[in-house]
Amino acid sequence: MYYHVNGELVDSSNASVSVRDRGFMYGDAAFETLRAYGGSIFEWEAHLARLKRTCETLAMPDAVPGDLANRVEETLAANDLEDAYVRVSVTRGEQPGKLTPHPTVEPTIVVIVASLPRGGLDGRSIWDEPAVLRTVKTRRIPDEALPADIKTHNYLNGILARLELRRTQRGDTIADEALIRDLNGYITEGTTSNVFFITDGTLCTPSLDASILPGITRSVVLSLAQKVNIPVETDHYRIEDIHAANEVFLTNTTWELRPVTTLDGIEIETGAMTDRLIRLFNQRIEQFY
Ligand code: PLP
Question: Could you say which residues form the signal peptide (predicted)?
């Protein structure tokens, strides 16, 4: 495999960043997970905008290189990949000394890719297995401490939530995703996904001010639903709201739409509206081929 590190294509076995890179040392970095279908990046502009916004919040507004799209294309081409997972990281760069970061430090820019074909019988993704979702006790770090709407290398909140799933596992099944609430008990999102549920024909998902990452897939799903006049509601929800739902699914770039079959031990059918949204999403993807 070839990766792109600081403007150079390098063999993945030689791809490295400094042990003093602040992304490694402190999680002082922005990233995006993207997906290529038929050689083109899905929702590139939205991902680029979110990456830039994260970098602005981290006070490194010029860190995203102007030729980032070319770097991604070159990496896909070097690996002969059309359907791929792509990850772009922008770190603050190497810590020049022991003390505070030097203002002229150069960002580190890394593009890594992996083959990610679409599989499954009806054109769904290889993450087609429905998910088991479980509410955890681990709460979302409040926005006032670490804003949820930026995508940084700091994923320990979600990692601790996933570790809680393992620690408190009953029987053989470890849940696929943890549902995280904020300190007031409102639903936020999964550790790497946004959550949707359907109640009485309305598609519901926590609103952007509910301590969530504004998922690109979330926004695609909302606009697909609005186009076909599915009633949509975004709000602050409690666990009881989602427990009473008829259908539940998760979204992220790699999973696309992933139905939830079990939530906190409650069995849920994959219903007609989830299926319909998956079909609409698939139609969007088919345009790439
Ligand atoms: N929420 C969190 C915390 C995530 O890490 C992700 C993606 O990794 C998402 C939501 C979904 O975002 P997207 O649809 O842009 O992949």
Answer: none
- Cβ of 213 closer than 6 Å to ligand 1, yes or no, is yes
Contact 2, 86 (CB under 8 A): no
| Same domain for 142 and 52 | no
CB of 194 within 6 A of ligand 1: the answer is: yes
Q: What is the pLDDT of residues 81-113, one digit of tens each?
A: 999 999 999 999 998 776 665 556 899 999 999
What is the value of ipTM here, to two decimals?
0.99
Tell whether ligand 1 has an atom less than 6 A from the beta carbon of residue 218.
Answer: yes
Domain boundary among 87, 115, 143: 115
- Asked if residue 189 belongs to a domain, the reply is yes
Domain extent at residue 148 = 131-286
Per-residue CA distances from 83 to 2, 115, 116, 212, 261 (Å):
15, 6, 5, 28, 27
Q: At 219, which helix (H) or strand (E)?
A: helix 216-227
